[in-house]
Amino acid sequence: MQAIIGATSTRLVFESLESNKPVSFEDVANMIDEAADVLLFNRELLQSAIENVSHGISVVDKEQKLVAWNSQYRKLFNYPEGLLRVGRPIEDLIRFNAEQGKVKFSDINNAITKRLDFMRKGSPHVYERQLADGIVLEMRGNPIPGGGFVTSFIDITQFREQQRELEKINLELEERVSLRTEELEALNKRLLEAKSMAESANQSKTRFLAAASHDVLQPLNAASLFSATLFEKVADESNKQLTLKIQQALHSAEQLLKDLIDISKLDSGNIAPSVTTFSVNELMQQLSQEFSVLANDKAIKLKTVYCSKFIKTDRTMLRRVLQNLLSNAINHSQSRAILFGVRRNGPRLNIHVIDTGKGIAKDQQDEIFKEFVQVDSDKQVVEGHGLGLAIVTRILNILKLPLTLKSSLNQGANFSISVPIADSLEVCELPQTVLLPQTTSTESNSNRLIICIDNEQTIIEGMESLLSNWGYTNIKTSTDGNFDSDPDFTVDNIALILADYHLENSTGVEVIKHLRANAKREIPAVIITADQTDSVKQETQENGLYILHKPIKPLSLRTLLNRLLKA
Known about the structure:
Layout: H1 2-5, H2 7-19, H3 25-51, E1 56-60, E2 66-69, H4 71-77, H5 90-99, H6 108-121, E3 125-130, E4 136-143, E5 149-155, H7 157-233, H8 237-268, E6 275-279, H9 280-297, E7 301-305, E8 310-314, H10 315-332, E9 337-345, E10 348-355, H11 376-381, H12 388-399, E11 403-407, E12 413-420, E13 449-453, H13 457-469, E14 475-478, E15 494-500, H14 508-519, E16 525-529, H15 534-542, E17 546-549, H16 554-564
Parallel strand pairs: 7-9, 13-14, 13-15, 15-16, 16-17
Antiparallel strand pairs: 1-2, 1-5, 3-4, 4-5, 6-8, 9-10, 10-12, 11-12
Domain PAS: 42-79
Coiled coil: 156-204
Catalytic activity: ATP + protein L-histidine = ADP + protein N-phospho-L-histidine
């Protein structure tokens, strides 16, 4: 009753009933007017509230009849004038929208029944509908206490378009990432293939140079032997000078080939340093003695400042580096004095090679470490190939030792290498002393049997010619180490064996071991080979053999023969 006529009117009615006083018609009219005013106020209040909402709003009572709506609701569905009115069944509006094609349903009646059922049960619901004009609505329905239903219609068209655009961008981004990933994977694959091919090519180059060096060094060795013999036989000074130039040219070709092989090996990445602890003093003494003769020949004063410390690195590789630096200083610097010394720098030693020569311009200091690069003035002073410093940088990169160059024009050059000082408790490598076998023979050179074995006949002829010129006339030769066809041959008379390592069906080491076994004694023997691999060096050492590398330097060979065949 309060909901219909208001609280005040309801109170008056109940007071009249209790007092048995009749209610006048005028009072009833006032009550109805009051109730109408309240209802109108509430409706206007509700309408005012929903009009200020930006979304479409519709309100139905528990009888599922339209009670209120806002202008946005009318606008969204474009309802014709007069369709929206209080008391209009909501079913009419849903059917109108379906029949006008504003909301598409596969089964209109089923869709309407389902929608009314939600409202009747007071079930909250949220769903989306796309209108015929493309507008996307989000519909949210919620029950009203005491019956009825309020539904909001939110235009989410722009949100969905943005969402679709983001999804499109995301998809395109994923496709681009996927494509880029495929490209990177393909690029990485090509890089790996290229790296593998480069490594394979590098190894092939190394093997080729090693094989080619053997084949090239063979004729160089023969030419060296013949030129040495010619030099000793000619008496005319002009012919001697001509022969000397031939020997120098042969030596230059030999050095170039060896440098190329060294660079190829260093670039292959297959060289691992053998780090030991050794005396820097002992290494510097050897190098100082070795280069003093060359320095004196060029009227250069070589001063060495020694150090008693022990260092830790690969001794052989460091020696090669210092050899190249000293050789460069003597041959290229045009210096009158060279300092070869050591200075301590904390836990490290700096080994210096300092000259007082023409120096190196700043713009050339990076270039000189590249292959086949020489400063212009060098070409007028001495022949060279420009590989010495390239080898230095490669070795130091393997050893992980820094190299510093300080120089300027006409101010000399200072090359320094920083080497770690060894711990005092570390085991040190002692200088190796070569023990030469002693012979008790007192025969003259002409009676001493020397065996020469090489698979190249020209080398045998050159060796025989050189030995004969030195007074060794009792010489037997072979290309394979087999002397069975020689009736005068006996192992008892052999004083020395000179053998190439690579023979047709065996190695020089195997032939020497066979001859020694037959003689039942350790015959002095020398392996002469162009093969400079560590395996060959190790095999010769294990069998107590000496080794000379082709092309043979006649002075080295003669010195070794004099020591092995003491009279």
